[in-house]
C-alpha cells in the first residue's frame, strides 16, 4: 500500500484545479480496498488456466501448463479452452493423469483483464503518457492498472491521468442509451427528428464553456440550452454594437500615449484576460 501511494504521488492529475482532491479520493479508495478475488463464476470471459483433482480438489497449475495453453491459444484461437478435449489442454507429460483432473470453470475478473492492458503495449520500462477516463474509474481502470503494474514491475503504468465527468439530464441522472435520456450534440446543432429546436454550433460551444467544465457532472436540458441561446444572443448584440461603433476607427500607436489612465488600465486587464484564456485552452500534457 505504501508503494502505491508513493507511486501515485508522482502522477499528474488533470484537471489541475481538482488534482489534489482526486488524489486523496484515489488514495482513500486504495486504503479501503479489500483483498482482490480475481476469479468470477460466469460463463463468458478469460478462463483461469487451472485444473482440479477429481477427488482431492487440489489445484494443478504451473508455468509449464500455462506455456502449453498459450501455444494452444496461438494454434486454435481464443475458444480453444471450450472446444478442445481435456487431454489436449494438459501437456503431454500429464496425458496418463488427464482423466484424474477437471478443468476449472472460473474466469478472471474483468477488471483484471483491463487492468493489465498496459502489458500488451509496453515493455517493463515503458509507461503511458496519459490515461483518460471518467470519475467512476478511481475504483475501476485507474486502480486496477496501478495495482497490476506495481505488483508485476514495481512502477506506475501512467505519467498522467485526465479525469472527466459525465453529462447528466435535468434530474441529475447519468445519460445512457438504456434510459433514453441522451442528448445528441448533432440534434442540438441541427435540430432533432422529433421537432427539437436547432440551436446552432455556437450555443453548443457556449454550453461546453459554461457548463461542461465547472463540475464533475455537466447538466444539459432544454432549459439550460435555452439559457445558453439567450446568453449567446446577448454576446452577439454586444459584439455587433462594438463593431459598428469602431467601424471607422483608425489605430495609431501615438493615440495610446494620449489615452487616459483608466483606459490604459482596461486595456491591460483585457490583455491579461486574453493571455489567461489562451493558456487555459492549451492542455498541458
TrEMBL record:
Note the superkingdom of the native organism.
Eukaryota
Q: Name one GO molecular function term.
A: isoleucine-tRNA ligase activity
Classification via Pfam families: tRNA-synt_1
Q: Which Gene3D superfamilies match?
A: 1.10.730.20, HUPs (3.40.50.620), Ile-tRNA synthetase CP2 domain-like (1.10.10.830)
Name a GO CC annotation attached to this entry.
mitochondrion
Q: Would you tell me the protein name for this molecule? A: Uncharacterized protein
Name the PANTHER family for this protein.
ISOLEUCINE--TRNA LIGASE, MITOCHONDRIAL, SOLEUCYL-TRNA SYNTHETASE
One Gene Ontology term from the biological process aspect of the record:
isoleucyl-tRNA aminoacylation
